[in-house]
């Protein structure tokens, strides 16, 4: 159950200026923490480096040398269904379908010291604790929970680079704070490469941790400060026996020893506490050094006023949330502003307060004219999240493109990011969708750097022949099924990406590049089987693979999808796809079939992140490749079906509950789809300046643009029954082609939908 947030009067006054509404009250970070949403409920600020949130179990990535499927439930560290908390760590991904991070887990305890986390069935057998959702509060920038086993109240808030903890203890001469440097998400036995801890004095600790996981050379530095001196401290090492340890054995390193190093370490700090005494912690992160972490801490949180830091975090969120002010029902407001919150979590800041960051070359760089960002889940976010930033966060979008180009400059492979985090590319998913983000930003006027240099980086990435079938794609016009298990989806996604490169080249009047890449963008046709009407794997000899089932998600040439969904993935050229599928009427009938068919469980049994809740007919909204499909009716003579399906998806796939997301939020892509569609328009093909119209869920929305102008959406007579659009006016002039342009928004103005219960045929 999600509780209402009652903000104190003083906090309200701190949050809300005369031009702002109090929108923090509608953000429910608990949405998506159950089932497949994979969000976390803890404290962060917009695009912050720190994501301070609870962990609810300690599952290993592998069991007996094999992948442990249950770990997938813990991509965000927290699972709403769990009954225990193991601690609070400082780094998390939001909504992903794979994971890493979970760095520097802290857990307050009292009584006999226990350094083992224990198990959920017996929480008192370790340092974990039982908890209840009745004693849990999750707000934008703030998290609170009572740890029942030790009667300790935990509170968390954050700034961009510093997490702040506040623990209220009972009276005890055995109060402890544990720093578990072995804990992590998607953890396994050898994940931690090395850990270093330096006890500077009785309130300050610094150090670093290097891990080898999804990112294979990830190093995070920290500085940890206590509000009260600890009376004693110690460590326990779980390192296996080494052949050689030098002569450190001369010291007793277990108790009160100030310099600790090893692969598997846990630290503890002991206190005497009075009843109700609060011990606070400031925990700063840096990608560069311990010194920078300490500098980040001192710059962002100078004192120990927890309530002040919390109010500052929530005021920052409120300012960002007020970029869009909507009028709609209370539940829809909760969905909308929680979606906006989730959209503004990632990408994350990867620059210290002094402008330094660690690059892909593992060297130290300084971002003089931009903020460097990481956490680019591009297979997901190029579709709607980055286009959403070009409207609501153009300055940050500009910096994100600069971050991608810095990644390219530092890459030994001379490639733009595929899926990058913490000075690494983990190469997850298919396509080279950074080219879409870059093209979209330049075409829409967001990027202020060297556009020709950006295009050169796009070209080099798209011509990297030894990356996932690109050489075959260039030579044959498709990727042979024998050479790749995801040959069809790669071909389709490369074709779209190449189209976006062509659009950028055309804008820059580099017509030789345009001609080359517009030709490549038609390669999708080589996987279309006219006999069946589906995209289908093709063998090296030019024939289609015989064993084929368009409903199946396994072994059919697609990544996280089936041919029924991927066969509509030609967002750059729906007109040609419609012609190949037999014309507008037949195409619309195929769309009808997709949304109404029954997809048996066996056809998504091998897909971790898709369950029945994320499917409408055979349309999989819980995964990204189909996100544009409902808008394709606009290219037929039946646009009212786009309107009906959009509203159906909005109401079915998004709810103001812990299990309210029908699939992984994927770093904000699911949320961006919700917001675009609630506002009545969507970027079917990023790289174009055109948005396709749908059916707005809001009654009214005001987008407060960075340039000082406003764009208003009004839906007259909008209701649960009135989902159809009778007519649309842009600044008083009727729109008849179901689309608007980016400049229509950024120039300011008003988009008015007249809604009806009957479709306009």
TrEMBL record:
The lineage of its organism: Bacteria, Pseudomonadati, Bacteroidota, Sphingobacteriia, Sphingobacteriales. It comes from Pedobacter riviphilus. Transmembrane segments: none annotated. It comes from the Bacteria. Keywords: Calcium, Hydrolase, Signal. This is Glycoside hydrolase family 92 protein. Residues 1-19 form the signal peptide. GO terms for molecular function: hydrolase activity. Its cofactor is Ca(2+). Monomer. Residues 292-756 form the Glycosyl hydrolase family domain. The keyword Calcium applies. It holds the Pfam family Glyco_hydro_92. Residues 26-286 form the Glycosyl hydrolase family 92 N-terminal domain.
